Amino acid sequence: MSEMKKIKNLKEFSTSADRFEGANLLCPGCAHSIIVREVLNATNDDLVLSATTGCLEVCTAVYPYTSWDASWIHIGFENGSTAVAGAEAMYKALKNKGRLKQPDRNPKFVSFAGDGASYDIGFQWISGCMERGHNMMHVVLDNEVYANTGGQRSSSTPIGASATTSPAGRVSYGEKKNKKDMVSIMASHNIPYSAQVSPNKWKDMVKKIQHGMAVEGPVFINAVSPCTTEWKFDPKDTMMLADLATDSLVFPLYEIIDGHELNITYRPKNVVPVEEYLAAQGRFKHLFKDEYKHLIKEWQERVDANWSYLQRREEARV
Amino acid sequence: MANKGWDEFEIGAMLRSFDGSIDDIAGTAQVDRTYSPSSSYTASVADWRLVKPVFNKDYCIDCQFCWIYCPDVSIIARDKKMIGVDMDHCKGCGICVEVCPTNPKSLLMFPEQAEEEAEIASWPAKDEEK
Ligand SMILES: Cc1ncc(C[n+]2csc(CCOP(=O)(O)OP(=O)(O)O)c2C)c(N)n1
Ligand code: SF4
Ligand code: SF4
Ligand code: SF4
Ligand SMILES: [Mg+2]
């Protein structure tokens, strides 16, 4: 195995030479690219990457430009994971036959995809990749909505969010279905590593990505990606939103090793009320009307229940 | 276009990021790379901006928060020092200013047409309330 890149602190990290470029067409303040930079900069090894159709792909491969300084494949909306899995299978086969030109290089295989592409439309492809045991990492840029096509709900959209296909209005408070628990679903494939990450906690992110790249077998990462356009907040506040997400425990940070060993990796010193997280986003604005205020209380109860569930799982190692 | 057989498919597009080959990309700083014209590095989004960040190095502690959280690879860090903003790639989101921890801040947003030297000369003083 190649040596793991040493990243003791942010100063040392800042000596990284980015393999993702600016002048892409992502919105100002988009968190997708912050996540991508943290993932790519976690290693110096060669990279074989893919992106499924969605904001990241559409905005970083606008002909005649590419924003990627590594092998990067795009095919369709559903099959970014299998594109990388295919490349990984080919690599393994060539390696076994002794036909690699530079066998000492240690490429990392990573697919990036939106929540729409992962929780819904590419779901069975990812499940297949996890089940077949490819040596790859699938990273979800979870902005809880089909952002690229104008904000339709996905099975990651949380209760009470207004999306264009579940709009809040006179007769509805917006999305009514609970968010799918993808980290657990993927962990249930008994893969060596699955984790939830957030770009504000870059150290936790780097540690998890490096762990995921070091293990043999499939890895699933869910990264919260605050979306200025669809969550409706000022672009300058992207990192504030990420802070609110992790510190309100709406997006708790944890990892699951070998499908059962759950570790909480971040315990906020001061837990922020969920109400503050909701209030910072236009997509939840209607919840602050009198007739919907009870939903804020229910939100807090759901988050509390999930946090105690994670703590119990951590203790029980199941 | 001629009809394709069942085992033939339309070749997709392939874009090269660099002219020639770079053996160790992760070990080669952006300034030292030979980008091809199809890398978005060679493009500019400067005309997206209505406001721009101005960097005042007098207060900077080189913490690199701005470097890690800039979505557009526009904070130029060299040898662990923050040395400036890449104005071709900065979209003016303002995240770098929000995350800058110094007092007064070492980065502030100004209208795109503002004069950098004049703004640095009249930089706000330390905010005693913080
Ligand atoms: C099979 C298929 N269905 C639908 C689309 C249209 N489509 C393109 S991008 C997109 C939304 C992507 O959402 P998500 O995966 O969450 O990524 P985001 O844009 O939010 O980052 C949709 C529905 C498509 N390209 N292919
Ligand atoms: S719509 Fe959201 S996810 Fe898409 S580019 Fe804009 S900020 Fe990023
Ligand atoms: S304003 Fe935004 S894009 Fe420009 S340097 Fe700051 S963080 Fe980067
Ligand atoms: S965040 Fe502020 S203090 Fe830190 S390196 Fe950037 S400009 Fe300097
Ligand atoms: Mg999405």
Write the layout of secondary structure elements.
The complex is a heterodimer of chains A (318) and B (130).
Chain A lengths: L9 H4 L17 H11 L5 E5 L3 H6 L10 E3 L6 H17 L11 E7 H7 L1 H10 L4 E6 L39 H6 L5 E5 L4 H13 L4 E6 L3 H5 L5 H10 L6 E4 L3 E4 L9 H6 L13 H24 L2
Parallel strand pairs in A: 1-2, 1-3, 3-4, 4-6, 5-6
Antiparallel strand pairs in A: 5-7, 7-8
Chain B lengths: L50 E5 L9 H5 L5 E4 L2 E5 L9 H5 L7 E5 L4 H6 L9
Antiparallel strand pairs in B: 1-4, 2-3
The complex binds thiamine diphosphate, iron/sulfur cluster (3 copies) and magnesium ion.
One iron/sulfur cluster (SF4) binds next to helix 3 and helix 9 of chain A.
Keywords:
heterodimer, A: 318 residues, alpha/beta, Rossmann fold, 8-stranded mixed sheet, globular, B: 130 residues, alpha+beta, Alpha-Beta Plaits, 2 domains, two-stranded antiparallel sheet, two-stranded antiparallel ribbon, 3 helices, 12% helix, elongated, binds thiamine diphosphate, binds iron/sulfur cluster, binds magnesium ion
CATH topology-level name of the largest domain in chain B: Alpha-Beta Plaits
SSE ordering of chain A: HHEHEHEHHEHEHEHHEEHH
Radius of gyration of chain A: 19 Å
**Assembly type:** heterodimer
Q: Which class of secondary structure composition applies to the elements of chain A?
A: alpha/beta
Strand order of the largest sheet of chain A: 2-1-3-4-6-5-7-8
Number of domains of chain A: 1
Mean pLDDT of chain B: 94
Bound molecules: thiamine diphosphate, iron/sulfur cluster, magnesium ion
Catalogue the unreliable spans of chain A: none
Poorly predicted runs of chain B are: none
Name the CATH homologous superfamily of chain A: Thiamin diphosphate (ThDP)-binding fold, Pyr/PP domains
Q: SSE string of chain B, helix = H, strand = E?
A: EHEEHEH
Which structural class is indicated by helix and strand composition of chain B?
alpha+beta
> Looking across the biggest beta sheet of chain B, what order are the strands in?
1-4
Give the number of DSSP strands of chain A: 8
Strand content of chain B: 5-15%
